[in-house]
Design goal:
The chain has about 325 residues and is mostly helical. Helix 4 runs antiparallel to helix 6, helix 10 crosses helix 11 and helix 10 crosses helix 12.
Length: about 325
């Protein structure tokens, strides 16, 4: 089990934006997003429709921060672009401009700029909340494994569409696609999704193993409660809090994340903060040197918790 892959989650967000499902849960988010999108977003929305197929190079299950995955997408080989688009064209029409994409560097630049913009509006503002929900879901799943074994996990991950019929794991795909996937000993990576709320999706081409995206557990997230309520106007105005002015916005967010998740590892801190692990380690080192956090080690893992000074600083930030 792992944190949501950013591009895979972004593709689910793009589909959710263009659909009408879960109006209470996603209504406020949809209104906020539509108000913030620029015309250049249309390229991504055309290639990732509400249903059907989308090119894998835009929806990959690669792990890393959103920024890292967006940069990685820009280096997609032309041969892979051509292959992915040819596969999509077997199932549904492509936008006319997409037929020239693999051989037109300027079109590629425009598409990746569109992807950056869509990610900045749809996903990045909510990445920390999404990571927290995914971490909570992982805790639920791990308890299921401890209480009832892997069978309990497979039986509960999405009872309406995922069924464990030993030795076969059966998926009822939203697309109606029917086929067999032989793992060949590779196993399967399970990742929770907030935006993929309607059912599971499988990336069969992911390396080193296929990835199955499933809706996040509703233990912490009710379908009747709105997600991603737009922030207050003063938060949108660009004003910085005193704590952010003192520490810097990212370092202040890292300190707050550690306070909310005491005992988190550097890798978990990075995922929860939406930054790369080396950056999380660097910020933690600075905060530790300032006496705001303490770090203990369990085997080869560094675990971070706030000190009383760090907690007092957070408590006084208002």
């Amino acid at each position: 089990m792992a944190q949501p892959p950013p591009l895979m989650e972004l593709s689910a967000a793009v589909r959710t934006l263009q659909g009408r499902s879960h109006p209470v849960r996603f209504g406020a988010w949809r209104r906020s997003v539509f108000a913030g999108l620029k015309p250049k977003a249309r390229m991504v929305l055309d290639l990732i429709p509400p249903g059907g197929w989308a090119p894998t190079f835009l929806t990959s299950a690669g792990q890393g921060s959103p920024q890292e995955l967006l940069e990685r997408a820009r280096s997609t080989p032309r041969s892979l672009i051509r292959k992915d688009l040819a596969h999509v064209a077997e199932w549904q029409p492509l936008p006319s401009w997409a037929h020239h994409l693999a051989d037109d560097p300027e079109l590629q630049r425009q598409l990746y700029d569109s992807l950056d913009h869509v990610c900045a509006v749809l996903l990045s503002p909510h990445w920390q909340q999404l990571a927290r929900e995914a971490a909570a879901d992982r805790d639920v799943r791990m308890r299921q494994v401890l209480d009832g074994g892997v069978e309990a996990l497979l039986a509960s991950v999405h009872p309406q569409r995922v069924r464990w019929n030993p030795p076969v794991l059966e998926f009822a795909m939203l697309s109606g696609f029917d086929g067999d996937l032989h793992l060949g000993g590779r196993g399967m990576l399970f990742v929770p999704s907030l935006f993929g709320a309607d059912g599971p999706a499988v990336d069969i081409d992911a390396e080193p193993q296929p990835v199955m995206r499933y809706p996040v557990s509703h233990t912490r997230t009710s379908d009747s409660a709105p997600l991603f309520v737009p922030p207050a106007q003063h938060a949108r105005s660009g004003c910085r809090s005193p704590l952010a002015s003192l520490l810097g916005r990212t370092r202040a967010a890292v300190l707050l994340t550690i306070a909310e998740h005491p005992g988190c590892s550097t890798k978990e801190l990075a995922a929860l903060s939406g930054i790369a692990p080396p950056s999380a380690s660097e910020h933690a080192s600075v905060l530790r040197a300032a006496g705001l956090i303490r770090t203990s080690r369990h085997r080869n893992t560094a675990l971070h918790s706030p000190t009383p000074l760090g907690t007092a600083l957070l408590d006084s930030r208002q």
